[in-house]
């Protein structure tokens, strides 16, 4: 089995993380876009027209070649997926570590029930 076909098999479940090379991320995103386009019933020509992009631009994006952010925005709008950017980069992002620290502060600062250690028996 060739390396190219190995990637095709793995790409269905690929998780993008900090160690994933940029070219692989672009290729994966292009594949996901093509899959979404097909699921929505668009041909490349139809989605290109709907988004205002050229067919060649859409083909390059789906092939994982570099593209500009405004091209992605046009495609996301045409596919009615623009609101997914809120998950990608939320307005009020707080890291998991900061959330855990804030949670710990709230527990320590919680009002006392009036009971003390050893007062279980009343």
From TrEMBL:
<dbReference type="Pfam" id="PF01381">
    <property type="entry name" value="HTH_3"/>
</dbReference>
<feature type="region of interest" description="Disordered">
    <location>
        <begin position="96"/>
        <end position="122"/>
    </location>
</feature>
<dbReference type="GO" id="GO:0003677">
    <property type="term" value="F:DNA binding"/>
</dbReference>
<feature type="domain" description="HTH cro/C1-type">
    <location>
        <begin position="33"/>
        <end position="88"/>
    </location>
</feature>
<dbReference type="InterPro" id="IPR001387">
    <property type="entry name" value="Cro/C1-type_HTH"/>
</dbReference>
<dbReference type="InterPro" id="IPR010982">
    <property type="entry name" value="Lambda_DNA-bd_dom_sf"/>
</dbReference>
<protein>
    <recommendedName>
        <fullName>HTH cro/C1-type domain-containing protein</fullName>
    </recommendedName>
</protein>
């Amino acid at each position: 089995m060739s390396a190219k076909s190995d990637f095709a098999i793995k790409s269905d479940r690929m998780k993008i993380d900090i160690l994933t090379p940029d070219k692989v991320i672009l290729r994966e995103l292009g594949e996901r876009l093509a899959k979404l386009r097909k699921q929505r019933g668009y041909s490349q020509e139809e989605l290109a027209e709907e988004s205002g992009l050229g067919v060649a631009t859409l083909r390059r994006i789906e092939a994982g070649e570099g593209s500009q952010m405004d091209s992605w925005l046009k495609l996301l709008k045409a596919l009615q997926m623009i609101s997914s950017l809120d998950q990608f980069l939320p307005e009020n992002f707080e890291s998991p570590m900061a959330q855990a620290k804030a949670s710990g502060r709230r527990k320590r600062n919680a009002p006392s029930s009036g009971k003390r250690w050893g007062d279980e028996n009343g």
